[in-house]
Amino acid sequence: MKPIDLTTQLAGLTLKNPVITASGTYGFGEEYAAFYDPSRLGAITVKGITPLPRRGNPPPRVVETPAGMLNAVGLENPGLEEFLTTCLPRLEKLKTPVIVNISGFSLDDYALMAAAMPEDSCIVAVEVNISCPNIKQGGLAFGTDPRSAEEVLRVTRKHTKLPLIAKLTPNVTDIVTLAKAVANGGADIISLINTLLGMRIDIKTRKPILGNIMGGLSGPAVLPVAVRMVYQVYKAVRLPIIGMGGISTWQDAIEFMLAGASAVSVGTANFVNPLAPVEIIDGLAGYCRQAGFTAVREIVGLAHQ
Amino acid sequence: MIIVLHREIVIENRSLGSDIYRLVLKGAVAATARPGQFVHLQVGTTADPLLRRPFSIAGIDRPKGEITLYYRVAGRGTAQLTRVRPAETLSVIGPVGRGFTVPAAGELLLVAGGIGLFPLLALLEAVDRSAVKVKALWGGANRQFMEDVGRETLFQTGVDYAVATMDGSMGHPGVVTDLLKKVLAEKSAHGLAEATACGQGADAASAGGGSGVLADRPGGRTAFTVAACGPRGMLQAVAESCRQAGVPLEVSLEERMACGVGACLGCVCLVRTADGMLVRRRVCKDGPVFDGREVVWDETD
Questions:
Q1: Is A26 on the interface with B (CB under 8 A)?
Q2: What is the predicted pLDDT for the residue at B274?
Q3: CATH code of the domain occupying A8-304
Q4: Which of B48, B93, B279 lies at the smallest CB-CB distance from A67?
């Protein structure tokens, strides 16, 4: 039996399979090494980092919702310097391609962080987070205005040769406008979707549950929204897409690839089933074998035909 | 690599009354579990309710390979859990977290609020009571709750205990921290606490895994220690009383949790380290047991 070719091409980047872990759900890669060898993954995306350390939002930071959850971590992270000196050497040991997610509060922040990323390490791409809903300035503000989004990508582009991934927020009226903007700005790859802004209220205390009041919705509940946006962006923009939003099973991953994603990210599902990413890798191969495809990339965008 | 994802067989899942259930699981967790650690259980197999639920380990029977958990039916997840039958299996991540220091000598005071009793039962079970003098203080809503839960747990252990109830229907009328203040006042009157500390170490190094919190701090080893679990407000009051009395304290914290393994940063608390720095800690991985002197109870301070 001939093995299925699981490799995927994202701009100049070749991954051995299309399954990535989503930023903020996988720490800096070490926690899930207790469950399987992270080198089985196509890549891991690490927790979003900012120039300076951030303590993040007060708890509660997570709350369950119907078939999903809200989070409002608020970009807690050790900061750029600590990331480079402590986290990166540990990441090297995982023998897995690493995507670094960067967030900023100004154009200079993005420039600084892009320039600081070594181009000869396990870092294979930089994901530009212009879509975090949980911080007061920056983040989402950059991601909902097409001109700002384009500018962030343009500035970041000037400071690194690494492939740039623009992570888009679904909290916009027209995702295609934003996708075109980041493409113009110089993004090589588009990842979508970040979380949908939401909130819950405790009916006993009559107060918002999250310390930050609002948070980002993720999990199976958001899957159809994400599939729709991947489908729309694939139709309108030529850049490769990393699809994410509620992917828990290989069937979900296939759906995203049919909509146009060249790779998929697994996020919230890690919390429920730590083995989800590796089960999805195996499931993709099984689907291709059954359906007569020799390479998983053959299915990308088939729903458009 | 320590594998922490298991399927455990349900041995017992039974109501004790007052919406409290006992769940006994057989599998790999018991072999390495330590008091104060918890398991992260998947209660169903569908997307709703989605997340795993953390439950502290209340009993560890290594020879039989069984752990005992207690849970209160509080929402959809725990309601679903009540319908699980013996011989079925559950997906378990565990044991996870840093547990209590198990003292090898001296005196240990357990202070529990409501279902905060459960992790302390595992500590009580692990302590060598021929070498350590143990006393338990337990507060709850009313006699019904205390009897439903206590008659199959604390009241059977033979440990010296005192109870408090909010409605005054059993024991001291009021909160458990009233009882704590009384004990600490007596200690102080007898010049105990730090005074009798004469090098009795805390044995937290057995059986691998994370050691207890106080064991890391030579200065924290004294003959009289307190371990507490309960609602946050109660723990804050316990911490204040222990601080005033100069008594070392370990607290087991509860927080809304997603991953349970330290990756998502959902379940954090704020800690003031010995050098005065305010830092985040993950309740699931750096805790759930923390040095009570370090926890910052009110973030708005």
A1: yes
A2: 84
A3: 3.20.20.70
A4: B48
